[in-house]
From TrEMBL:
Keywords: 4Fe-4S, Iron, Iron-sulfur, Metal-binding, Nickel, Oxidoreductase. [4Fe-4S] cluster 1 binds at C43. Its EC number is 1.2.7.4. GO terms for biological process: generation of precursor metabolites and energy; response to hydrogen peroxide. InterPro entries: CO_DH_a-bundle, CODH, HCP/CODH, Prismane-like_a/b-sand, Prismane-like_sf. [Ni-4Fe-4S] cluster binds at H266, C302, C340, C448, C478, C519. Pfam families: Prismane. This is Carbon monoxide dehydrogenase. It catalyses: CO + 2 oxidized [2Fe-2S]-[ferredoxin] + H2O = 2 reduced [2Fe-2S]-[ferredoxin] + CO2 + 2 H(+). [4Fe-4S] cluster 2 binds at C52, C55, C60, C75. The keyword Protease does not apply. Its cofactor is [4Fe-4S] cluster. One of its GO terms (molecular function) is hydroxylamine reductase activity.
Length: 629
């Protein structure tokens, strides 16, 4: 029986998305929702995580149901082993993605300190010196580039196999580090943990589900406290530490009279150069000669978040808006780096005058124009890309252009440094507000869109419900766009918060929902939790905090969720990972981890029910700290 076709209202809550979905139908452009319908219903074995393709004795399908003849695969692995193997590899994939992003920033730092590039530079010298000193590098009376070279070598070491623990564990409370040591969870090196996970899940290796999952947690921690944290901190050093600023959001940021370039992906190395090139006087003159009023750069997904937080570059949309942005007919070029980029964008771009341009050899797309961008030549290559976009402006068909609008304002750019600055340089005012119950706790809402869920309905539903309960919300990644479009990233949104949070927001001049960056910048949030825990002399698991990814879809989101739980943060997911085929693995994720690391996962599709669960958790942690619930 064919699945019921979703209406536009069932696909999204947004007016701009709805208009573009209708236009996509008229223009004959296929979207993620269309493809989801053709894939439904999904394979039940795959949904449960009980299929194994790790060798060619299979593929195998197993079941833990009583009376089933498929209890074990050909090698003898049961549902517990197969589900744990699959989840471990899922976590390894997510950890590799964010950590490889971090490695790319280390390579750019190397190009700077060795003189290979003049296109990139150290933008926040003070942060680099503070960072080096925190990691035990002498900085006083030393040349900046000399400090940079030593920092470079130390951080490269975090990807290797020779350390007992990664460098940023210096930020972790001692109580938490002792838990990791006792459980064998201490992350030693990014590549080491990922490689060991692939080895453990080879046939004939780790056939104990709990053991595999412990190493999955260690792998995720190597991402959160090393790979991702390196990516965040070096992005600040190289491109500048974010500070609060006004910006604009939704598809209305596209300009009818300008050359529109969308940057998409996750790494700011390319998008920063595109922004530089778009402001080049010669290229602006070329755009004017092509009868364009200017060159407009806007962001999608996390590359968008990076330049949004640092430069205030407008944000066109999140994951499920990427195809729809092209459908406006107003985009001259989409320039991508890697991660969360739908292959379908090549076909969508081909339906219009849009050029689809790739810039990373690890993310090639058949049918795209490819530039292998290197630090030594990045700006010159970026100018070539912008020139291609200018050339496409005259090929735009005005009859096919529809830009929904207008765009909306939001406040972005709350790094930990910016947050501390807003508090007068100390966490004390914030902690006093927590003790007084004006801010009852904190929840990070992070991650993606998933076409299985009405776009952004869960992200927004949870954010609104939490701020009503005097819980300050921190957002990264695709949730940023949702909250920006809903007006929650403005100080005036404090009128929607509970009385205590409203008072605090008014005193500090901040929104009740704070934008903390891209999804790699969830490392800012676990670092902030560590700072608060150290200030109070407790473990992270003792804090009135929580995390959530209501509409997640990716391996990276699972890795983020697992490193949050392993760090002691209760974490909500709107959809379950593919582990329900094993009672052992499911029970460990939902219950058993609580006894091991002081936190666990909870799965709840209803955002209002999820808010109640997070609120109850925060109340319990407040009472345990001797505060009012």
């Amino acid at each position: 029986m064919a699945p019921k076709k979703m209406t536009i209202a069932e696909k999204t809550i947004w007016e701009d998305a709805g208009k573009m979905l209708a236009k996509a139908e008229r223009d004959g452009v296929e979207t993620a929702w269309d493809r989801l319908e053709t894939q439904t219903p999904h394979c039940k074995f795959c949904e449960l995580g009980t299929t194994c393709r790790n060798c060619v004795m299979g593929p195998c399908r197993v079941s833990d149901k009583e009376g089933s003849k498929m209890v074990r695969g050909v090698c003898g692995a049961d549902a517990d082993v197969i589900v744990a193997r699959n989840f471990g590899r899922f976590i390894a994939g997510g950890s590799a993605g964010h950590s490889d992003h971090g490695r790319d920033l280390v390579e750019v730092l190397e190009a700077i300190v060795t003189g290979e590039t003049s296109d990139y530079r150290i933008s926040d010298e003070g942060k680099m010196r503070r960072l080096a000193a925190e990691l035990g590098i002498a900085v006083e009376d030393r040349d900046l580039l000399e400090v940079g070279r030593e920092l470079l070598e130390l951080l490269y070491g975090d990807f290797g196999s020779r350390k007992r623990e990664v460098a940023f564990l210096c930020r972790v409370p001692e109580k938490r580090k002792e838990i990791w040591r006792r459980l064998g969870m201490t992350p030693r090196g990014v590549d080491r943990e990922i490689a060991e996970m692939m080895h453990r899940t080879h046939m004939g290796c780790d056939n104990d589900a709990a053991s595999t999952l412990i190493h999955a947690a260690r792998t995720a921690l190597s991402d959160g406290w090393a790979g991702s944290m390196i990516g965040t901190e070096l992005s600040d050093v190289i491109f500048g530490t974010p500070t609060p600023k006004m910006a604009r959001v939704n598809l209305g940021v596209l300009r009818q009279d300008q050359v529109n370039i969308l940057v998409h992906g996750h790494n700011p190395v390319v998008s920063e150069m595109i922004v530089e090139a778009a402001n080049d006087p010669k290229l602006l003159a070329e755009a004017a000669a092509a009868r364009a009023a200017g060159i407009n750069v806007a962001g999608l997904c996390c590359t968008g978040n990076e330049i949004l937080a640092r430069r205030g570059i407008p944000m066109a949309g999140n994951h499920l808006m990427t195809e729809l942005a092209i459908v406006t007919g107003a985009v001259e070029a989409v320039v991508v780096d890697y991660q969360c980029i739908m292959p379908s964008l090549v076909q969508a771009a081909a339906c219009y005058h849009t050029k689809f341009i790739t810039t990373a050899n690890k993310a090639r797309f058949t049918g795209a124009i490819h530039f292998d961008i290197k630090p030594a030549t990045a700006l010159a290559q970026a100018k070539e890309i912008v020139r291609i976009a200018i050339g496409q402006f005259s090929r735009r068909d005005p009859r096919r252009v529809e830009i929904p609008g207008p765009s909306l304002e939001m406040v972005t750019g709350f790094s930990n440094e910016a947050l501390l600055a807003a508090l007068g340089g100390s966490l004390t005012p914030l902690l006093e507000a927590v003790k007084a119950g004006k801010v009852r706790g904190f929840v990070a809402i992070v991650g993606c869109n998933n076409p299985k869920l009405r776009q952004d309905s869960c992200n927004l539903g949870l954010a609104r419900a939490l701020i009503e309960k005097d819980i300050l919300v921190l957002v990264t990644g695709c949730v940023t766009t949702a909250c920006g479009k809903a007006g929650l990233l403005l100080p005036e949104a404090a009128s929607l918060a509970g009385p205590g949070l409203k008072e605090v927001c008014a005193a500090l001049g901040i929104p009740p929902v704070l934008h903390m960056g891209s999804c790699v910048d969830n490392s800012r949030i676990i670092h902030l939790c560590a700072l608060i825990a150290r200030e109070l002399g407790v473990d992270i698991s003792d804090l009135p905090v929580g995390a959530s990814s209501p509409e997640w879809y990716s391996e990276k989101a699972a890795a983020i969720g697992l490193y949050a739980v392993a760090s002691g943060i209760y974490t909500h997911l709107g959809l379950p990972p593919n582990i329900l085929g094993s009672k052992t693995v499911t029970d460990l994720a939902l219950h058993g981890l609580e006894g091991l690391v002081g936190a666990s996962f909870v799965v709840e599709a209803d955002p209002l029910k999820a808010a109640e669960l997070l609120d109850a958790r925060i109340s319990g942690k407040r009472l345990a700290l001797g505060l009012s619930g």
